[in-house]
Design a protein that fits this description.
Layout: E1 6-9, H1 25-38, E2 42-46, H2 52-59, E3 68-74, H3 89-92, E4 98-104, H4 107-114, H5 118-136, E5 139-144, H6 146-152, H7 154-166, E6 171-176, H8 183-193, E7 202-206, H9 213-223, E8 227-230, H10 244-254, H11 263-266, H12 269-280, E9 297-298, H13 301-309, E10 327-328, H14 336-346, H15 352-368, H16 376-386, E11 395-407, E12 413-425, E13 428-436, H17 439-451, E14 462-470, E15 484-491, E16 497-504, H18 507-525
Parallel strand pairs: 1-2, 1-8, 2-3, 3-4, 4-5, 5-6, 6-7, 7-8, 9-10
Antiparallel strand pairs: 11-12, 12-13, 14-15, 15-16
């Protein structure tokens, strides 16, 4: 396939309906600019008149180099003319370059929800699209619940989309609004629709309620649609929308489509995915196709050996094409090839005896409960300590944590943590006490306070995630000998992330081990000298 396909991103409108997501104006501006840079054709900015954030965004929209900003809204209300509808007015008077209007296409909704004559619904679509075309120059129609409507009453659903087409809609978007349609149905129905509306004017908007949104979108493209809608990271209501992070590389690399995103810009996809997560303060989905940290991760020794010979054995594309990278996981399942590949990745060379000792050490540690497949920084420190490259930055002589639950001055129950630490740095001892919103936060605060004079680089790192797992006791144990594994993810001022691990029968002790590695990794990477 070589004919042009157009990409429509609806992260800022449909994606904003995700539970727990609340975009600020600054968020919208940053995301819109990033989408524009990638090469997206249409960016749906929101619904003018619906809320103050969208009003502010459209009042002063960002400058876009190539993308068209789209304002979303509804067709006119029953019994009103399009020119006098107060809901349409802010959409058509906005500074957006195009309008996308949603309207019913399922007779069930028209009969039960709107309680109007079906002919009136068709007229609402026709009038609204005609006015949008006149005012904005570029009008689109989102046919809500189109596939349910088509299966229930084909003639009425087709009347709705042909009315929009005849009224001048550049795009008629077929929506699988509840995500319940399967790919074979999508392809068959879209093929039938192309007999009434040219595929060059059809789009697809798929929800992911059956985990088929991307597959449904690709099926619709095969059937002839030439606009595809989706959101970054599959953001959206309920189970989300079609994930544009998977759609773009599948369309370009798998189907050979020209969708305005050059192969050079494909390399920005992983960064765009992370940008959204950063703006929302969410942890990235490690297992997301194409752009996730684990998308090209290899754990089993057999796989790693094969990948070392030819990556095509277990990688469907070169990860660099989408800005990602191969990741060799070290674990108790690892063979020699895993360790060698990981050492090559971090630039560490070990002679045969040291290499053998490191592999045995990894397996011993994981038998105790460590997991290096999710704690690459701790593995790198382990390897570099084998070479004597990591200094002893400080010695934690002792620590104490006290948790207190009490009523505050206004009678509310509060729980406070207080940590006391004693460290030795360059032969000098220091004791610090700090409060925190939990024992780990209190320890982190006290340790930094004790170390900041010697190691100012620690000021710019932040702990962003903390996970605890209770490991099952040994088979012949009493049930009280279980150990605790703590993993801590950290981030520096440049956005680099690293994960460290600690294991102990005591959760605080395990946390301190992971904290120590987090500090050591930061200091080693910053080139700090040891004590």
């Amino acid at each position: 396939m070589s004919d042009r396909l157009y990409l429509f991103d609806t992260t800022l409108r449909d994606g904003a309906q995700t539970q727990g997501v609340d975009f600020s104006v600054a968020d919208k501006e940053a995301i819109a600019s990033a989408l524009d840079m990638i090469g997206i054709d249409y960016i749906e900015g929101g619904w003018p008149g619906a809320n103050p954030t969208d009003d502010a965004f459209f009042q002063k929209p960002p400058r876009l180099a190539s993308a068209t900003l789209v304002a979303f809204g509804m067709t006119r209300r029953p019994g009103r003319s399009a020119e006098n509808d107060p809901g349409l007015a802010p959409i058509l008077s906005s500074k957006a370059g195009a309008a996308c209007l949603v309207g019913k296409s399922w007779d069930f909704h028209v009969d039960v929800a709107l309680e109007i004559e079906r002919e009136e619904n068709v007229a609402m679509i026709r009038d609204s699209i005609a006015l949008a075309k006149e005012r904005k120059g570029l009008a689109m129609y989102d046919a809500e619940h189109f596939f349910d409507g088509f299966k229930a009453n084909k003639a009425f659903a087709l009347d709705c989309v042909t009315a929009a087409y005849e009224a001048g809609a550049r795009w008629i978007v077929l929506c699988d609004t509840n995500g319940g349609t399967l790919p074979d149905e999508i392809e068959r129905i879209v093929a039938e629709v192309t007999a009434h509306v040219p595929g060059s004017h059809l789009g697809i908007h798929a929800h992911n309620d059956t985990e088929n949104a991307v597959a449904n979108s690709l099926a619709a493209v095969r059937a002839g649609v030439r606009q595809v809608q989706g959101t970054i990271n599959g953001l959206g209501e309920r189970c989300g929308n079609a994930n544009i992070m998977a759609l773009i590389p599948s369309l370009v690399l798998k189907m050979g489509m020209d969708c305005g995103v050059s192969k050079d810009r494909l390399k920005d996809l992983t960064g765009l995915s992370r940008l959204l997560d950063e703006r929302l303060n969410r942890q990235p989905n490690r297992h997301q196709a194409y752009v996730g940290d684990a998308a090209f991760a290899h754990k089993g020794g057999l796989h790693v050996s094969a990948v070392a010979k030819d990556p095509r054995t277990y990688e469907h594309i070169d990860p660099a094409l989408v800005g990602n990278r191969r990741h060799i996981v070290v674990s108790d399942q690892a063979g020699r090839s895993n360790v060698v590949a990981m050492l090559n990745e971090i630039g560490v060379e070990l002679e045969e005896p040291a290499l053998r000792r490191l592999l045995e050490r990894v397996k011993e540690q994981e038998f105790k409960g460590y997991a290096y497949d999710g704690a690459e920084a701790s593995f790198e420190l382990l390897a570099r300590r084998t070479l004597g490259e990591v200094p002893d930055y400080f010695d934690l002589i002792r620590f104490r944590v006290i948790d207190e639950r009490r009523r505050n001055a206004i009678g509310n129950l509060v729980t406070e943590s207080e940590a006391t630490v004693m460290v030795e740095v360059a032969g000098e001892q220091a004791m610090r006490v700090a409060n925190g919103n939990g024992p780990v936060n209190a320890l982190d605060t006290a340790l930094r306070d004790a170390l900041k004079g010697r190691y100012p680089d620690l000021e710019a790192m932040h702990l962003i995630d903390y996970k605890v797992r209770i490991m099952p006791p040994a088979a012949d144990g009493t049930g009280t000998d279980a150990v605790t594994r703590v993993t801590i993810e950290s981030r520096d001022e440049a956005g680099a992330r690293w994960t460290t691990v600690g294991v102990s029968a005591n959760i605080i002790d395990a946390s301190v081990m992971a904290l120590y590695d987090a500090y050591a990794y930061r200091l080693f990477r910053a080139g700090a000298r040891g004590a």
